[in-house]
Design brief:
The protein has eleven helices and eleven strands. It has helices at 15-26, 41-45, 73-77, 104-108, 146-163, 179-185, 199-214, 230-242, 256-262, 267-270, 275-289, and strands spanning 2-8, 29-33, 48-63, 83-86, 91-94, 114-128, 133-139, 168-175, 190-195, 219-224, 246-251. Helix 1 (15-26) packs across helix 11 and helix 5 (146-163) runs parallel beside helix 6. The protein is elongated, with a radius of gyration of 23 Å.
């Protein structure tokens, strides 16, 4: 039982399309979409949702109108300008989008007129797809705690992988290097960094590489659309070698990726004989041959 997390330093590098392509090659596998802030793997996988669960994270204050005397202390205390007056009513309400859930207003309200309760921030799902089971989530608009939701989604996926004797967990990770990314790589066998041959692509790849090295996580690198700038692509290979990251391959620019995505398919399903699909097969074989992918780290 192994886990590969596909990462990128920024959005739009093609990691989700690559994850979907790997899913068609992996056999006995489970998918996990850990990019809960902007989940899109479901657009290709067309999941049939079997289970829906609420995700509660953080707290939100709410003024009880009948108990509010309009003293205004909550508005004076709030440092986020979340407390607003109800025009012509002499009482106040709390703007849920502005409330940071600190609880100061509820703690210090002289009339105990403010409820402070845990709120539902999103949902997570267990679904079936044409390639296997998929665990994914949707975070609400302007909600935080995405790191906690990533951890929840991955924990649930790992439990099911172990219970159902699944060979590999493919995780489509969040972009960047923030809390959600850190939550997505714990206990994984290795990460695959998908990058592009641009100055910003190299910069973002190096940031993810530093993060992986900090957590002692084996990292591999592949380049998408390498032929758009061969010089930068060669520079990426040099950097990967210097950082002791295995370079597993490069993909040409291929409109077949977009064509497949529009059809809600992976490129392996729609253009299995294309140059890009051939390279994907080779990249997958190199990933599975990596020493880190031969160890059991799921627990």
């Amino acid at each position: 039982m192994k886990e590969l997390v596909i990462l990128s330093g920024k959005g739009g590098t093609g990691k989700t399309s690559l994850t979907a392509a790997f899913a068609s090659l992996a056999g006995n596998m489970m998918l996990c979409d850990a990019d809960v802030d902007a989940a899109d793997l479901h657009l290709i996988m067309d999941p049939d949702i079997q289970e829906t669960h609420d995700f509660a994270g953080g707290y939100e204050a709410e003024i009880i109108p009948d108990a509010c005397t309009g003293c205004g202390q909550c508005m004076e205390l709030c440092r986020f300008d979340a407390v607003k007056p109800v025009e012509g009513a002499g009482i106040f309400y709390i703007d849920g989008l502005a409330c940071e859930g600190c609880g100061v207003c509820a703690d210090l309200c002289p009339e105990s007129a403010i409820k402070f309760e845990e709120k539902v921030c999103g949902q997570w799902f267990a679904s079936s797809t044409r390639f296997g089971e998929m665990i994914h989530a949707r975070l609400g608009i302007a909600e935080d705690n995405s790191g906690r939701l990533v951890a929840l989604v991955r924990d649930e996926a790992r439990k099911r992988v172990l219970a159902n004797h699944i060979d590999i967990l493919l995780t489509d990770g969040p972009p960047g290097i923030g809390c959600p990314v850190i939550a997505s790589i714990g206990h994984a066998n290795a990460v695959l960094i998908v990058t592009e041959p641009t100055v910003s692509g190299i910069h973002d790849m190096e940031r993810v590489a530093q993060l992986a090295a900090h957590f002692k996580m084996p990292a591999m690198v592949c380049i998408n659309k390498y032929d758009l700038n061969p010089d930068q692509a060669r520079a990426i290979e040099v950097i990967a070698e210097k950082r002791n990251m295995e370079f597993v391959g490069k993909l040409p620019f291929d409109p077949a990726f977009t064509t497949a995505m529009v059809q809600g398919k992976s490129i392996m399903e729609t253009h299995g004989d294309s140059p890009a699909a051939t390279q994907i097969k080779e990249i997958w074989n190199r990933i599975m041959a990596h020493p880190a992918m031969k160890m059991d780290r799921l627990c």
